[in-house]
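Quick one, probably user error.
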């Protein structure tokens, strides 16, 4: 993907915003706006149309979860809907699963290294997987349907081929592309094609959303093997 990479940083801590801005700027990534709460983040996205939003979960006035819902559920800014990376202090923050369900592309701990931060922003902008699948799965298994309410995603898997259903099931179990290829005796390119078709048919943004969909449609269940 060509062109500059444009980011909005939303966090109520000035030191966090400043640190992330310095790291991203040093890597040639443009920070087009900063926000101290979710409401400012929504406004900044609409004004600047960034590629990626780094979104803290816990902020005053409007938290990162509600801001993510509004950003990804609304018309977006000049550049269209960005990809959202959730920032959290804890690796299993209770809000992160809900943020993934709302459309976020993954999450990062605030103590992430500069190299990991830059790599994550670039990966998400390119539509690639942000997290190791096993980390995403561990998060989802902890929080999927934990309160017994109806799942928030109601997707019809009937449009998938048997092979695509198999790929989605294994994807949700935490297998990487290389592991999927070995398990199904397929080439890496074929696995990527299957995943792309799954995302297209289910109207999902990325791999993280595919894993969420697999759990919330009941294709796989937490703790099952």
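Nope, works fine. Designed sequence:
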């Amino acid at each position: 993907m060509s062109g500059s990479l444009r980011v909005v940083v939303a966090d109520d801590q000035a030191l966090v915003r400043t640190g992330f801005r310095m790291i991203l700027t040093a890597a040639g990534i443009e920070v087009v706006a900063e926000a101290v709460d979710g409401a400012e983040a929504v406004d900044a996205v609409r004004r600047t149309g960034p590629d990626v939003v780094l979104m803290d979960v816990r902020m005053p006035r409007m938290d990162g979860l509600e801001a993510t819902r509004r950003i990804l559920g609304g018309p977006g800014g000049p550049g269209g809907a960005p990809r959202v990376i959730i920032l959290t202090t804890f690796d299993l923050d209770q809000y992160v699963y809900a943020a993934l369900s709302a459309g976020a592309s993954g999450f990062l701990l605030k103590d992430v290294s500069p190299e990991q931060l830059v790599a994550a922003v670039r990966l998400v902008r390119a539509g690639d997987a942000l997290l190791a699948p096993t980390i995403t799965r561990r998060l989802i298994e902890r929080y999927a349907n934990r309160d017994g309410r109806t799942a928030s995603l109601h997707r019809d898997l009937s449009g998938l081929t048997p092979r695509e259903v198999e790929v989605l099931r294994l994807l949700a179990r935490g297998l990487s592309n290389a592991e999927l290829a070995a398990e199904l005796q397929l080439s890496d390119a074929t696995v990527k094609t299957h995943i792309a078709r799954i995302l297209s048919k289910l109207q999902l943004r990325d791999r993280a959303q595919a894993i969420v969909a697999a759990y919330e449609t009941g294709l796989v269940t937490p703790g099952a093997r």
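Confidence is low (pLDDT under 50) at residues 147-154.
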